[in-house]
Amino acid sequence: MAKPVATRGFARERVLDAALDLFAAHGVSGTSLQMIADRLGVTKAAVYYQFHSKDEIALAVVKPVYDDIEHLLRITETLPTAEARRSVSMSGMVELIIRHRRVSSVFYGDPTVHHLLETNDEYRRIGDRLADVLLGPAPDNSTRVAISMLSAGVHGCVNDPMIADLDDAELQKILLDFTKRFLEVCVPAQ
Amino acid sequence: MAKPVATRGFARERVLDAALDLFAAHGVSGTSLQMIADRLGVTKAAVYYQFHSKDEIALAVVKPVYDDIEHLLRITETLPTAEARRSVSMSGMVELIIRHRRVSSVFYGDPTVHHLLETNDEYRRIGDRLADVLLGPAPDNSTRVAISMLSAGVHGCVNDPMIADLDDAELQKILLDFTKRFLEVCVPAQ
Fold first, then answer.
1. What residue ranges of chain B have pLDDT lower than 70?
2. What domains lie within chain B, and their CATH numbers?
3. What angle do CA B134, A99, B185 make, to 5 degrees?
């Protein structure tokens, strides 16, 4: 009985890998189930056996990222001050985005993916919890802009082709340093 | 003889406006010439009369942004120090991105648009000149990360739906302040 399950798991991973390559090259909107099947050298029916829609594939591709964000939140939400919650969450997000460098390049900034994530209850709740720890209670406009700018800056930089020659360790070191300094000078403690 | 030209100019603007709306909602990949025609209530042939491909429309949509970047560069490239060139260019870019808020939300971060802009000689040259003034001569990795992070941060924040309630003037004031502080603490003068 073990073999079909193993094969199925393997096929699932292969579909997700192929999908991620295609999403990165063409965006989610520009990728079809047929393209995924063609890349794997299988029929569209074989892909349907694993996933019932492209949306389901896109959600499965980002699942490990959301699992890690949830894990980070379970740690940071217990911290005693808003500043500690914010700075530990932001540092954790820097590490997490670099760890998921390939996936984050696809799911960040794509309007189709954004809509998909927003309409998924589980992911939206995690996104809301992340916003809560990063923004803190009753954030003013300046704090909101700072967190938005910093989040976009980290995501965008990690996915910038001009920075692709930097290895993950060096990029992480520099980004963690900049993130800390930015919070210090732009988001005063409450 | 004046009327056909005026009509043509009017139709051109209408196509660009409709295209921008659709690009914003579906991405460039997810938008077809047929969708643009449908939105305008005209035939695809009527759109073809103005533009020969979707790429041509996308390039025309971003043209005013590149015209403004070129104008900014003509000013900043004459400044005497690398620090002045960098900080004036970055402040100018903040203003420019806010001025072109709608267009920048479409052309930033979309892999299709990125490819299109990279393969257009005129736009690529302007992009290279902008990178030169922002990075300065022989930038180290830290400076490269800082400029990438700051550029992505400003673009991403301006297009962040969570920030959409801030008016342009307030957003610009806060972003100019953060940009200045970030450069001060993260990009030491050479």
1. 1-10, 109, 190
2. 1-52 (1.10.10.60), 54-186 (1.10.357)
3. 35
